[in-house]
Amino acid sequence: PERPFFLYLAFGAMHAPHQAPQRYLDKYRGKFDSGWDVAREEWFARQKEMGIVPPETKLAPRNQGVRPWTELSANERAFAARLQEAFAAMLDHTDHQIGRLVESLKSIGQWENTLFILLSDNGASQEGGATGVFDEMKWFNGIPEDVDAAVKRLDDIGGPESHCNIPWGWAQVGNTPLKWYKQNTHGGGVRDPLIVHFPGGLSSPGAICPQFCHAVDIAPTVLDVIGIPAPEVVAGVPQMPVHGVSLKPVFENPAAVIERDSQFFEMLGHRGIWKDGWKAVTRHKPGTPFDEDQWELYHLAKDFSEADDLAAQEPERLKELVDLWWKEAERQGALPLDDRNAIGLFAASRRAGMPTSRDLFVYYPPVSHIVSDACPPVGRGWRMTVDMLHPEGGGDGALVSRGSINSGFILYVKSGRLHFDYNYFHEHTRVVSGEALSSGSRKVEVVISRRADGGGDVSLLVDGVEVASGLIPRLVFLISSLGMDIGRSMAPVNRDYVAPFAYPGSIRTVTFAVPPSQPRGEAVAHVRAVESQQ
Q1: In 10 A of CB 234, how many CB atoms?
Q2: 3-class DSSP assignment, residue 471
Q3: How far is the C-alpha of 320 from the C-alpha of 303, rounded, in Å?
Q4: How many CA atoms, within 13 angstroms, populate the side-chain half-sphere of residue 181?
Q5: pLDDT attached to residue 332
Q6: How far apart are the first and last CA of the chain?
Q7: Which residues, including other chains, have CB under 8 Å from residue 532's CB and lie 6 or more apart?
Q8: Calpha distance 133→32 (Å, rounded)
Q9: Alpha-carbon span 215 to 184, nearest angstrom
Q10: How far apart are CA 174 and CA 168, in angstroms?
Q11: What gap in Å lies between CA 171 and CA 188, rounded to an integer?
């Protein structure tokens, strides 16, 4: 108990999927039926009343793409409101878990002896699109949500059979009173709450401090508070210089000035820079020249919400900040700029040195769970081979499983027969062998060939002989963010079984063979050929 501890606790909240126990979901039924326009005005008024934002703060204009709530159809409103209910329920549930941590610290007599820092990592997400999504992976695959179909499953939202995310309208509310969202470098993307509890270390507990600070300041603050200098060398390796500054002076005096020069921002081509209370920022359109970006200028010291663009009135100051941005971008290794959006980045993840850069993946069990970033790319054709020893008398279980009930695929044995199920967002393509799998050493293969129309032909083979085949209407590049299991299925892909569905036989190896990527010119020609047929 006398030994100090450091805890970094990263919740899944409020990242999608938004899920919570039923009692939390029930608590928020109907709470958002008035819509995002009313909620945004109410939240803004409450922020002013509580002193969270300065009294002169303006509510930033509606983000482009956010329709007035009254213009939505009945189905769109019902779907959007239910998505926000799930968001609120998950946030409430997370708050309860933070409370459990606080109570635990109190129970061991350490609450009064602990520096407790609570912060968010970014603004509200824009990955739900204009309507919101029942399954976020649709957004990452560029698949629009069918709201009229989604409302038939309203009661599944927030539960294990959804992977939902809120629409832009509710994300805009979450970022009140700011502009834009996560990914952007405007306030809605990068301005977040920071709450500090430090008994005996704060001169004015409860004070709201307006000083500019950044996530890079947390580490130097912790080191400063406990009186330990940042190490210059760790295990013989020289360390990078500390980029942030300590916030301890503000703990001692809420009006203290934080000595920092500037702060650089860049995300997916969106750029920003802060210096002496001023901020230059631009929102980049992917695929367009960076020189065409329209830079904006805000005096954050007087304009909390970035509502008044002063670029035209202060051209020299703007130029100075933009020039500084380029200098900082070079100094911090941010060049060349990469403006591919999330879909483009994920699809292009076969970079040298990354697990997905391989064309052949061989797994030697026991090896499970495999995170999604280390899984084979399955957006094109692929061949999966399972070298196995099937037990005498048979035995059911999962051989290879990837994804979940929302999307994924699984190869498994049930009632003696081989099954392969490709789950395209709750639309299942199943192929099943006609006869039971005989015991002994077996080589089971799944071969998928991508078709020009985006679908795929699937064949199931045993010892080189095809035992079943079928047509998958559509293959997706990003089938799931939940990773892969071998010899079990921790997240069921269908309702045929219950997790973990462990296979009782012996799996010697699992091999994925993925054909090399097409050269860029061939890929572009292929895409254009497909588009010409639509």
Answers
A1: 8
A2: strand
A3: 20
A4: 21
A5: 84
A6: 67
A7: none
A8: 17
A9: 16
A10: 10
A11: 9
Tokens of 273: 């820079």
Alpha carbons 134 and 145: distance in angstroms, whole number: 7
> Which among 512, 489, 514, 510 is positioned nearest to 387, based on CA atoms?
510
Mean pLDDT of 5-27: 96
**What are phi and psi for residue 211, nearest 5 degrees?**
-60, 145
Half-sphere exposure in the Cβ direction for 386 (13 Å, CA):
27
Q: How long is the chain? A: 534
Query: Which of 223, 226, 250 lies closest to 239 in space, CA to CA?
Result: 223
Distances in Å between the alpha carbon of 6 and those of 3, 212, 248, 382?
A: 10, 25, 18, 44
Q: Which of 299-308, 346-355, 411-420, 458-467 has the lowest mean pLDDT?
A: 346-355
Look-up of token digits 């009632």: 415
494 Cβ contact list (under 8 Å, min separation 6): 405, 410, 421, 423, 428
Query: What integer is the mean pLDDT of 420-438?
Result: 96
What backbone phi and psi angles, to 5 degrees, belong to 24? -75, -40
Beta-bridge mates of residue 397: 413
Whether 445 contacts 383, CB under 8 Å: yes
Q: What is the pLDDT of residues 180-205, one digit of tens each?
A: 999 999 999 999 999 999 999 999 99
- The residues, ordered by sequence, that sit 6+ positions from 229 with a Cβ below 8 Å of its Cβ are 223
The tokens for 63 are 């983000």
Give the pLDDT confidence of 504-533 residue by residue, as tens digits: 999 999 999 998 765 444 444 444 444 443
Closest CA to 365 of 390, 399, 319, 393: 399
Which pLDDT band holds residue 3 (cuts at 50, 70, 90)?
confident
User: Which two three-digit tokens encode residue 496?
Assistant: 């045929």
Contact call for residues 313 and 325 (beta carbons, < 8 A): no
d(CA 374, CA 356): 6
Place of tokens 């606080």: 102
Q: How far apart are alpha carbons 383 and 281 in whole angstroms?
A: 47
Kindly report the backbone phi and psi dihedral angles of residue 186, in degrees, each rounded to the nearest multiple of 5, phi listed first.
-70, 175
Query: Domains in the chain and their CATH numbers?
Result: 22-200 (3.40.720.10), 263-331 (3.30.1120.10), 350-532 (2.60.120.200)
The alpha carbon of residue 82 and the mean position of all alpha carbons in its chain are separated, in whole angstroms, by: 20
Tokens matching residue 434: 């006609």
Question: Who's near 118: CB < 8 A, 6+ residues apart?
Answer: 98, 193, 194, 195, 196, 197
H/E stretch holding 89 reads helix 74-107
What are the CA-CA distances from residue 148 to residues 29, 76, 167, 279 (Å)? 20, 8, 15, 42
* Helix or strand holding residue 212 (H, E): none
Q: Are 137 and 407 in contact (CB under 8 A)?
A: yes
276 Rama class: left (phi>0) / alpha (psi -120 to 50) / beta: left
